[in-house]
Write a structure and sequence with these properties.
The complex is a heterodimer of chains A (about 290) and B (about 350). Chain A has about 290 residues and is mostly helical. Chain A is about 70% helix and about 5% strand. A two-stranded antiparallel sheet of chain A has the order 1-2. Chain A is globular, with a radius of gyration of 19 Å. Chain B is about 75% helix and about 0% strand. The chains are: A mainly alpha (about 290), B mainly alpha (about 350).
């Protein structure tokens, strides 16, 4: 039982990371119907930025995080303007090819600068180690992750449900054309949400260096995870994405723990089954892309 | 059919003339295949490489059928290629060394697998299809990775002695037999595919790609057509995989890699989708460039490949053959303009 709780805890922390990274992709897909396979690249860039900031500039772990968010968000704005925008109306195949191209360039670049190996990051002392809670030894770092995840989820939900900008985003996701007819500048809304989503992915990548690992193969290794979370959660839906990410996090952790010999089987089989059972996402009624 | 058209073309409506013209082999096409035959005599030192290009071209042709003509986006076509290669490899290992029989069985196995998975793939739209095809090929990778007794894992099946073709011709070190064998099989399959694509069946596939609603309205059974072509394409890919295994006498699990499926897509796009020859042209350009650039540094190659992909999707539509066709149209228009 304790064992199970431990796995549940690890899985939820893992799921939180997956959520942070994929929520931006969910928006890209929901808002523009753009198939962005390169979303993991932003997370990887976040991870490497953390390595550079802490290693070369001697910055603290926590102090680096906001910088990473801002830098990745700004970088994504440039990419959106130059590479993504011309392909909004193109076929899905073109979008897939272009974003696979971005992945290749990123993988080659990361290998060139940092080599093919895993990058370690030293987390501060107060965050490492265990915290005994009711007979369970919980990792402090994972607790921290879940805290960050909870705060960001609250901010996102508040931003989407309670602010004017959030209303614009929801309107644009719901019906692109009508929103435009009502005077909402959908492309600008998209630009901003794209930047925020990429920034969050960067943040997730940085936070995840010690959990997910960091090597040049990152964008491809987790591609299936991100896509699956978004499709199952429903494109453009924050809560759906969160649920899907947590579910997948727990399932993957449990699979690796209880039946280690199956390895990556679990995730691929889960994907095929989930897609067949819920072609419209867990919470239903989402756009089919 | 084509003779009738030639004699009575005045009475034929223009669209029938156009359709009949599509069926006829033109000079460029005949030159293309003669040139491939000439490679055997002119470049005897490169026959191994040339057969690999041809095999990749055949593999790309199989993708062209579903992607270019039927409009099914896939990121996991390597699944069928790998399945064919392993089937042929295992058959040889277990004592059935005759290559042609190996090809047929490999094609059948890949085709059956394609038929079974087609129901999963065709359920969704583009994104779901991408994910399911990717998932299936990764699943096969995992299976091959676990079943090391059967597949040899990362080391693969090595040094398998392939028997004589039809019991008559044995493979030689220089790859002469291999090249003729590959050329023979590919040209035979190409003729088949070409006939298929120029037939009304091929036109119905294009209709489905261009406008599914209208296709349905004029009575094209969309679902069965797509299942059908997906199965056929899987079979072709399996045969291509078997050819690769038989000519290199080697197969390892990286045959199921994501990279291979992605590369194949790129090859087809570079060459030009829905052109029949795009796959072969793309394979030649891609593999020669890869051979040159990757020998300097594999990362270097990946980087430029990425750049090429980005630039070509943004600026170069229709691939190399598309660009060539536009160029020829321009030249033709210039000539006509000069005459009048």
């Amino acid at each position: 039982m304790l064992n199970f709780l431990g796995i549940l805890f690890d899985g939820l922390a893992y799921g939180t990371l997956l959520f942070l990274i994929s929520v931006g992709l969910s928006v890209t897909l929901g808002l523009m119907g753009f198939i962005n396979l390169a979303h993991g690249v932003f997370a990887m860039v976040g991870g490497y930025l953390l390595v550079v900031l802490m290693g070369r500039f001697g910055m603290g772990f926590v102090a680096s995080l906001p910088i990473i968010f801002v830098v990745v968000a700004l970088a994504s704005l440039v990419l959106e303007r130059t590479l993504y925008r011309p392909l909004y109306k193109s076929s899905h195949l073109d979008q897939v090819l272009m974003t696979v191209g971005i992945i290749f360039v990123a993988v080659a670049g990361a290998t060139y600068f940092w080599g093919a190996g895993q990058q370690p990051v030293a987390i501060p002392d107060w965050m490492s180690g265990q915290l005994p809670v009711a007979g369970l030894d919980l990792s402090r770092y994972r607790l921290f992750l879940m805290g960050v995840g909870a705060i960001i989820t609250l901010l996102l939900v508040f931003g989407l449900e309670r602010t004017r900008f959030g209303a614009r985003v929801r309107a644009s996701v719901e019906r692109h054309r009508t929103a435009e007819a009502m005077g909402i500048h959908v492309e600008r809304v998209f630009q901003l949400t794209f930047a925020i989503g990429s920034g969050l992915a960067g943040l997730g990548g940085a936070l995840g260096v010690n959990v997910l690992g960091l090597d040049p193969g990152f964008p491809l290794k987790f591609l299936v995870y991100f896509l699956l979370i978004v499709v199952v959660g429903g494109p453009g839906k924050v809560i759906g994405t969160l649920l899907a990410a947590l579910l997948l996090g727990v399932a993957d952790t449990a699979g690796k723990y209880y039946v280690p010999e199956t390895g990556a089987f679990v995730i691929y089989i889960a994907m095929i089954v989930l897609l067949l059972l819920f072609p419209n996402g867990l919470l239903g009624r989402s756009k089919v892309i | 059919m084509s003779k009738q058209v030639a004699t009575s073309s005045i009475a034929m409506p223009h669209y029938l003339v156009a359709l009949a013209a599509r069926e006829r082999w033109n000079k460029v096409e005949i030159t293309f295949w003669l040139a491939l035959l000439a490679v055997y005599f002119v470049l005897p030192g490169y026959l191994m490489f040339a057969s690999q290009i041809l095999i990749t071209g055949l593999f790309a042709l199989s993708l062209d059928l579903i992607l270019g003509y039927a409009g099914i986006v896939t990121l996991g076509h390597a699944a069928f290629f790998g399945l064919g290669a392993y089937t042929a490899g295992l058959l040889t290992k277990w004592g059935l060394g005759e290559p042609v029989a190996g090809l047929l069985i490999a094609g059948a196995v890949a085709g059956i697998f394609g038929y079974m998975t087609s129901f999963l793939v065709l359920r969704g739209k583009d994104l779901t299809r991408l994910m399911i095809t990717l998932g299936i090929s990764q699943l096969l990778y995992e299976v091959a990775n676990r079943a090391t007794d059967l597949t040899g894992g990362v080391d693969g099946l090595q040094g398998i002695a392939v028997g004589k073709i039809l019991g008559l011709f044995s493979f030689d070190m220089g790859g002469k037999t291999a090249y003729l064998y590959v050329l023979g099989v590919s040209s035979l399959l190409f003729v088949l595919v070409r006939a298929l694509i120029t037939s009304p069946y091929g036109l119905s596939l294009r209709t489905i790609r261009e406008n599914p609603q209208r296709a349905l309205a004029i009575g094209i059974p969309i679902r069965s057509r797509l299942t059908n072509i997906y199965t056929f394409s899987a079979m072709l890919a399996g045969i291509a995989g078997a050819l690769l295994m038989q000519t290199t006498q080697f197969v390892a699990i990286d045959i199921f890699n994501f990279q291979r499926s992605a590369d194949l897509l790129i090859i087809l796009i570079i060459g030009g989708a829905a052109t029949l020859y795009g796959g072969f042209v793309g394979a030649a350009v891609f593999m020669i460039a890869q051979d040159r650039l990757a020998s300097i540094n594999p990362e270097y190659w990946l980087f430029w490949l990425g750049i090429l992909l980005i630039v070509s999707t943004l600026y170069l539509r229709g691939g190399l053959l598309g660009a060539l066709r536009r160029l020829m149209q321009l030249a033709q228009r210039a000539r006509k303009g000069g005459r009048s």
